[in-house]
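Let's inspect one such protein example.
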Amino acid sequence: MKKLFFCFLLSSLLAAQKTEIIELKENLRDKKGLTKSLTFIDNRPDKNIGTIPDKKETVELKFADDNLKKLIEDRFTEDNKETGNNDIVLILEDLKVYEEQDDNRPFPYAKAKIKLSGFIKRNDRYYLMGRYDNVIVCNPKTTVHPSIFLAGKIADLITQFIKASYYPYIASNYFIPENEINRYNEYLNKGYKAFNNASLKDGVYADFQSFRNQEPGFDYYIKKNKKGKVTQLIYQGQEISLSKMYCYVENGKAYKLTPVGFDEVRKDDRGFFIYSSRTNLFAETKTGGVLIGAVAGGLVGALIGAAIDSSSNSNSGAVNGVGFRSTLESNVYLDSLTGAYIFEK
């Protein structure tokens, strides 16, 4: 009798769990034919993407082929018959779906954590093009099936990241020897002067890279009103838009321009961060869309969906939005290589 009950229970559990396939529906064609090869490195310590509740079921998210390297590389070869000279290397470092109950929230949210980096190989060196390191949030009030929503967002993100890598902006000082590719973050962060130095240099920084290298613009300065609020940015004696400034440092403290004003940039043993929310950091575009921070400060990469809004440093690193613009406030770190917002909640 016990065996019969166990078999019934097991069959019921298996029946209640479904699978949602993450499909790369769009082609991976390089329209300009610049790319010779695409190498996909799957460095995830755990290849299981995970499960999330969906209605009364538990749904596991998977790719059609568990060998993701083969799946993507074969797809690239199939979609690109004419090839150029660029050798592209992508590294997937994390991909997980889960449900999380955030503080002061009445119900849990389904989420997907993704970390994906892109490089171009020249001779025996790899040059960083960009990185996407973020959490996609599903809004339970408006999304009927979170598993379908997240599967679609993951597929779109990977597809657009790959396509963006075909037309790279290369920072010549961001190179990694071939034997250091799996330690690229540690290798490149040796030159992170803003973090490694004991103090920050006062001044105005036009972009993230100048902040990272601690090279303030000597032709820039700010003006404040009687209340101490920054009201003007001066460049070579002329007033220019505040959006031309990434951040400024005063008395050793950094203040980053965001769509809702200047936020203090704090530092801990993990890096620099601001305490804010997606709602405060994602500005509406002129066309009514939403821009979400993924890449910043002049190092172009991971142009998810629409093109980067490079005209405004208040949106530095913005890309076409993915996920729910939550009002949840938390520590939002600045990517040490790109200046991108890294949301962990």
Q: What stands out?
A: Residues 285-321 have pLDDT under 50 and may be disordered.
